[in-house]
Design brief:
By secondary structure, this protein is mainly α. The protein has two domains: 14-49; 57-186, no CATH class. It has seven helices and two strands; from the N terminus they run ααβαααβαα. It has helices at 14-27, 31-49, 63-82, 85-94, 97-117, 135-154, 163-186; strands at residues 57-58, 122-123. A two-stranded parallel ribbon has the order 1-2. Helix 5 runs parallel beside helix 7. The chain is elongated. The relative contact order is 0.16. It comes from Haloplanus salinus. This is DUF2391 family protein. InterPro entries: DUF2391 (IPR024464).
Length: 190
Amino acid sequence: MSVGKGGDDGSTDMGDLFDELQELEELVGSDAAREQVRETMRVAMAASATASPFGRVIRGFDRGDLAEALLGALLFGIPMAVEGGTQEVAVFLAGHPGALGATFCVAVGMVVGIVYVADIQDVRVHKPILGLLPRRLVGVVGVSFLTAVCLLTVWGRVDWGAPWLALANAVVAFVPMSIGAALGDLLPGS
């Protein structure tokens, strides 16, 4: 177990504390001691929740996070649903499947960058789906894509009689919605 991790100035933060506690959890021998370490992690998480909205350790993905992501997706996505340029870009992408796939992948990459790389918050992967997919990533991408599909469909902006073009429209709207969902989830500091 290392001591004194932190920034260049020797400071430590809640992320360092959680790293240390996770290392300690792996080192202790008895179930009772492991449970005590887990309880200490829960207390530390609760204490960090009452601190500043930034710099806290974020674990899991619950319905509050889902609601924040939905709000962010709507804030960034409603202009896309009413803007005619969305349909123009979709017509182009529908004729270029590689560009359509790349657009979707870039949007997912931006979500990964915002949530896990940009260091807006200290986000930890907690109980990944199938041991591989982070719940927060699936939640943010899922809610933003479903919001794009539902909003464009309900407002009559897509015709599912032409499913490829409708999908292209949804992908175009999904790009800003995914950014909004990621920021909406993280900025309140949940």
